[in-house]
Amino acid sequence: MARTIEATFLGGPSAGNRPVEVTNSGRLPELIAHGAGVYKLSPSPTTWDGDYHYQNAEYRWSEK
Q: SS3 of 43, please?
């Protein structure tokens, strides 16, 4: 099941706010940014709020 959230990208080429699609895959939720690959939750798999790292781009998001 997928849903859309607003993500705040803190750095890298995707810095700024934009909607991303969230989907569950196995035990960890993943963020699938439109056209930008797959992002895995760190550090906690039990919350939909957290800090993420993808390559050199760091971002924070929370569900609205």
A: coil
